[in-house]
Design a protein that fits this description.
It contains five helices and five strands; from the N terminus they run βαβαβαβαβα. With 127 residues, it is α/β, with parallel strands linked by helices.
C-alpha cells in the first residue's frame, strides 16, 4: 500500500476512446509517470480491486459504455479501499456545479485536452 512518503506516480486513465486514451498515456509516460489504462468504469474497478499499488490519480471519462463515469464514481466513493483516490473528469460536455459536487471531483478537464493543464493537475496529485 502507498504511504504518504512513497506517493505513487501511477495514473489510471479510464476512457473508451482508445486513440485519446493512448495519446494521454504516451504523454504522461514521456513526463515520467507510470500509466495504466481501462476502457470503461467496470474495467477500472476490476483493476483497482485486484492490485496492491493504488494510483495517485484517476483520469475519468464521463460517457462510456458498460459503466459510465458517474456510475464508476458512485461505486468508488462507496468502497473504502479506493474511495480516497482523487478523480479528474475528462469530458467534452459541460457540467453543472451540482453534478460536480455530487461526484466529489477534484477537477474537470475539457476535451480536447490541453496538455499543459493536464500535466499541472497530474503534478498536483502525483508529485
Amino acid at each position: 500500500m502507498n504511504t504518504p512518503e512513497s506517493k505513487s506516480k501511477y495514473v489510471l486513465i479510464v476512457d473508451d476512446e482508445l486513440e485519446l486514451r493512448s495519446s494521454i498515456a504516451e504523454f504522461l509516460r514521456d513526463e515520467g509517470f507510470s500509466v495504466r489504462e481501462a476502457s470503461h468504469g467496470q474495467d477500472a474497478l476490476n483493476m483497482l480491486r485486484s492490485q496492491v499499488e493504488m494510483p495517485c490519480l484517476i483520469l475519468l471519462d464521463y460517457m462510456m459504455p458498460i459503466l459510465d463515469g458517474a456510475g464508476f464514481r458512485k461505486i468508488q466513493l462507496e468502497d473504502p479501499s479506493i474511495s480516497s483516490i482523487p478523480v479528474v473528469l475528462m469530458s467534452a460536455g459541460r457540467f453543472s456545479d451540482d453534478i460536480v459536487k455530487g461526484l466529489s471531483l477534484h477537477a474537470i478537464v475539457n476535451k480536447p485536452i490541453d496538455l499543459d493543464v493536464l500535466i499541472g493537475i497530474v503534478g498536483q496529485h502525483c508529485l
